[in-house]
Amino acid sequence: MKKNRKIIQPDIEIVRHLSKTLKCDPVTATILVNRKIISPEKAFVFLNPSLNSIRSPFSIKDMDVAVNRIDTAITNHEKILIFGDYDVDGITATTILYDFFKYLGTDVSYYIPHRSKEGYGLQTNHIPNHALPKGINLIITVDCGSDSHDAVKAAHKAGIDVIITDHHKISEPLPPAVAVVNPKRRDCTSGFDNLAGVGLAFYLLICLRKHLRDKNFWRDRQEPNLKNICDLVALGTVADIVPLVDDNRILTKTGLEVINSNTRPGIKAILEVCGIKKQLSTHSIGTEDIAFKLAPRLNAAGRIDHAKIAVELLTEKNFNTAKEIAVTLNKLNTFRQTCEKEILEEILLHLNENPHLLENKALVLSGQGWNEGVLGIVASRLANRYFRPVVLISIRDGAGKGSARSIPGFDLYEGFCACFDDLEKFGGHPMAAGLKIKAANIERFQRNFETIVEKMTAPDDFVPELLIDYELDFDHISDKLIDELESLQPFGPDNQEPLFAAGNIKVASSTLVGGNHRRMLLTQPHGKTQKSINAIHFNIETGKPLEENFDQIIFRLRWNRWNGSKTAQIIIEDT
């Protein structure tokens, strides 16, 4: 697919000042300015992320109310239920609250609904079917609850208080809970809108621990070091694809340090199942490992079976037991990949037979009995492939459940709001959302959604854009520069790994590896000299003849670590 290439042009004077003050390469300073980090003070915090630099979470609306109600529950020995979501964000948020309350000796349990049988969030039937029989006094939701109005009313009627902690978009009136801790509520000015559900749960624990400290609660027991649970905060934050800037960056960076210390049996076990253990001497766990190895296996529990399996893994203290659970998750993930492949192939065949569908601004497709747990992944693949919003709906017994993924130029949640009359229920983010719909309404929704997408977008929104940080000649590449680029990690949304451009590239040698990857030695003439560098281009079209020259390549620059040594390597993004 054709992409618009755009080289970012930051203010040269700001770049020079930052480079001189930080004593860093101008390339590094340029990247920082491109990320809107323009002052030396802000750059120092960015390059030296520390838990000491996080903002005070006490400013989050209703946080004090939530903490006081939880304190009452602890004091009165009430039964607490943690109610979570079935994705990695919800799983990790559930785990950190559950473990913390267990450490306090509280009577606590957790509940995560079955994705296909129960659906998302706290619902009315959970009160008589689960909370009342268990004698629950207080329900704390994590990563859900913002639209659970009827369920909160049912709980209140049954004498059960509810505290909502959530980061999804929320509309008014708010659910009638004791506390609604959601930074996206209109009257919350804390500025924590980008927190993942697990980040919000972590901040609840920071405030609760401080509240208990002020009451001398910890005089007879060791106060827990919350840094130790940042491994789970990092997992949920990266998996939920929230911006990796400000507090999210600090929490993720700290969490990766904890993960690399190899302490939690569940994470250690799943790393071993992924085959990462053997690499640890030369490989530090990073955001890519979470996104492409750990998160898919943890998510597989909720997509194929039940998410409680993942919570069991993360709460398990015995490594051998954790290893057994990790093996189970790995098998579920393999089955998930099979389901995903089958649905994707069915859709691609359908689009091949009905090419007119690709003339639409959005793809709204439905199928009988599709596995609802993998629809989000398939929708994401299609959105990347055709670069337009995609909604996939599984139909069973006249009812449809769907997942949607979008592109940067279109807000899915707002689009669904505009199609309110067509839908039974919906929720989510600008880039990812879920819905329920009557099968009879799908065709009408398809038409209305297409109209909304057309109204809310411009033609350029449907052309992917490659934002290039710097035109980097090979002779500028140095060990110091690559080290500085590593200091910009962890990479993710709003702090993408830097992209570079270089022209007049010659291929000195080339070989295929892994079936469809090409390893090359590239050179770039520069005056009377030329510098060579190793490169790899993933997922190429092997049927095309190899070009001997490239007018321009777009690439990332990294260390390639192997057998205790490291060499410079570029990863080609586009040619």
Radius of gyration: 25 Å
**How many strand segments?**
18
Mean pLDDT, to the nearest integer, reads 94
Side by side, the strands of the main sheet go 3-2-4-5-6
Count up the domains: 4
The name CATH uses for the topology of the largest domain is inorganic pyrophosphatase (n-terminal core)
Termini separation comes to 12 Å
Reported CATH architecture of the largest domain = Alpha-Beta Complex
What helical percentage do the residues reach? 25-40%
Low-pLDDT residue intervals, each spanning 5 or more residues: none
The outline comes out as globular
Number of helices: 18
Structural class: alpha/beta
Share of β-strand residues: 15-25%
Commentary on this structure:
This protein is α/β, with parallel strands linked by helices and 575 residues long. The chain has 4 domains: 4-48 and 466-574, OB fold (Dihydrolipoamide Acetyltransferase, E2P); 57-246, inorganic pyrophosphatase (n-terminal core), CATH 3.90.1640.30; 262-339, no CATH class; 354-462, Diaminopimelate Epimerase, Chain A, domain 1, CATH 3.10.310. It is 40% helix and 21% strand. The chain has 18 helices and 18 strands. The strands form 4 sheets. Strands 3-2-4-5-6 form a 5-stranded parallel beta sheet, sandwiched between helices. Strands 7-8-9-11-10 form a 5-stranded mixed beta sheet. It has a 5-stranded mixed beta barrel with strand order 14-15-16-18-17. α18 links the parallel β13 (470-471) and β14. α1 (12-22) crosses α2 (26-34) and α13 runs antiparallel to α14. The longest helix has 35 residues, at 319-353. The termini are close together.
